Amino acid sequence: MGAAKAAKNDEFYTQYADIQKEINAYLEYNPDTFRDKTVLLPCDDPEWSNFTRFFAQNFERLGLKRLISTSYAVESKKYKDYEPTLFETESPLFDVDKTRIKGKIFELTRDTNGSGRIDIDDLEWHYLDGDGDFRSPEVCKLRDEADIIVTNPPFSIFPLFFKWLLEGQKKFLFLANKNCVTFKDVFPEIKNNHIWSGRTEWSGGMWFETKVASDVDKVINGINMKNVPSVWLTNIDHGRRHEPLSLMTMKDNLRFSKHKQIREGGYPVYETYQAIEVPYTDAIPSDYDGIMGVPISFLDKYCPEQFEIIGSDIKGISENIGIQPIGKDWMDRYRSFGGTGHYTANMRSLVYTVNGIPKKAPARILIRKKPQQ
Questions:
Q1: Phi, psi of 329, deg, nearest 5
Q2: Could you tell me the residue range of the domain that residue 312 belongs to?
Q3: 147 and 168, same domain (yes or no)
Q4: Is residue 235 classed as helix, strand or coil in its secondary structure?
Q5: CA 5 to CA 10: how far, in whole Å?
Q6: How confident is the model at residue 10 (pLDDT cuts 50, 70, 90)?
């Protein structure tokens, strides 16, 4: 069952329009983002992938020097329902045995067909020596040769991929499940502004093509699609990252906020940490100088010139910033008002009381307004 679940979670294919929208945001900010660069697309299925298609079709517009796309061998995947494409089977390189146990590499560097331009028809390919695992020596070598890494990695092994990515010390742009921002290895990188959210908004998730029939949410234009709460994460700059939030003062929020919770409950102070609870990003008070607990979705709109990230109540991080254990007495009172959940000693959480009722905050990012220059 675990293998089946992992297989489903990995068989997602990104839509061309979503890739185009994201990449264009970086070009608007800096038209030379990809110029004279080698781009590596690991964890790919080049014959099916819209990542390969997009970068190959836009090779000259982006000014690329080299495009490399690698795939993982079919027999090394958990999901093995695979049919080779005509692109592969009609090639003199095709080997019916190798195609299931070897990874493949597609490269684009030159005009191979004499058309006068470099595009998708000039892709050259061959089998890798190994299965194409991103951790293999030959793919690690390609990572070290690349300038920028772009991909939609297997969600089921994200922690391993993220470690591999950071070890390469390259520019990158990748898709991940939204929950990954709460991982204790990921959040510090966000806090220290080493990585940040991409251009695409987080709300609504993203729609991916899936080849797993049992994992379909909707059929769109005859294509099986799955909605996943996904985010782009990157260390490449883009303009939206530097757009400050337009916010109301605390006084105006208490009077005019569209959120009844703010108008009636205000901004309670946590009992386990000196900060106020702000349950909605658009309700962040513009004139409050102390620390605030905000939703994780705040990272979608985080402007480093406007706010600084102090920390989070994420397990493994909360201890480092001084969030206090909630205590059994508080938990008993919480349960007496209908609250649920287990209790363990030294359990740390951001808790508060509104109108006499004890409440637990959902996962929070702790931020503080930066002084105006």
A1: -60, -45
A2: 250-369
A3: yes
A4: coil
A5: 9
A6: low
